[in-house]
Amino acid sequence: MSLYAIGDLHLHYGSVLKAPSQLHDPIWKKHEEKLRKNCLKMITNEDTLVLVGDHSWGKNLSQCEPDFAYIRALPGKKILTRGNHDMFWDAKKTAELNTRFSPELFFLQDNFNVYQDFALVGTKGYTFEGPFYLDGRRRIIGWDEEAEAHAKKLVEREAVRLRTSFEAARAAGFQKFVMFLHYPPTNILQERSVFTDMAEEYGACKVIYAHCHGQSRFYDSIHGEYRGVTYQLVSGDFLRWKSMKILD
Ligand SMILES: [Fe+2]
Ligand SMILES: [Fe+2]
Q1: How far is the CA of 10 from the centre of ligand 1 (A)?
Q2: What is the CA(219)–ligand 2 centre distance, in A?
Q3: Which residues contact residue 193 at a Cβ distance below 8 angstroms, ignoring those fewer than 6 apart?
Q4: CA-to-CA dists, residue 219 to 96, 134, 196, 214, 223, angstroms
Q5: How far is C-alpha 113 from the chain's CA centre?
Q6: How big, in percent rounded to 5, are the helix, strand and coil portions of the chain?
Q7: Using CA atoms, how far apart are residues 28 and 44, in angstroms rounded to an integer?
Q8: Cys-Cys crosslink for 64: which of 58, 74, 105, 231, Cβ 3.0 to 4.6 Å?
Q9: What confidence score (pLDDT) does residue 73 get?
Q10: Residue 23 pLDDT exceeds 80
Q11: Model-level pTM greater than 0.90?
């Protein structure tokens, strides 16, 4: 029995592909097939697979239907967190998604799920992504302050959702946590954030995140241990479509 995670499948069986990199970068060529084969090799129905956001390019549930069919056919218990491209997922209607897709898929937001004696908690998260202003040596010398102020509001809303998830798990008696975010836990300066602070406050052993695509973005945030918590990036192209084992 193991816990696995991968993110950013960006499926488009029933919708129009929007990202140009997904057309040109060889890592994305038939990525759905690569992932399916790797999952069937590694993962059994006793395992749990957390899909860490950006599941589908579909704009609504009907466009996403073939993508959900693909996800349902993957082995293991499937848990989904919300990504910035998941237009089908109205943040206020997570409970409806859970009713509609139960027991095959679980949508993780304002709630929690369980792996052994761990609570799996999570939310989309958010981080300020610039624009940053660079000097001639590509050092950051400033950023767009209006965009930063807007980002702060989104971060605060996501922090409330994450705390709701932690508190629900704690109220149910859980003391061990694995925390999932779609966005990286920090901005590219890798400064502490409300998300790293919350992971430490509740004693999460791991923080799993995705969203960072392409070589130039893979190291935007923390990898490995930081202040007692282990951070792992699981975007699909970073993992070359092999889900990462998070816990045995
Ligand atoms: Fe993505
Ligand atoms: Fe994303």
Answers
A1: 7
A2: 15
A3: 127, 155, 185, 186, 187
A4: 36, 18, 16, 10, 7
A5: 15
A6: 35, 25, 45
A7: 25
A8: 58
A9: 97
A10: no
A11: yes
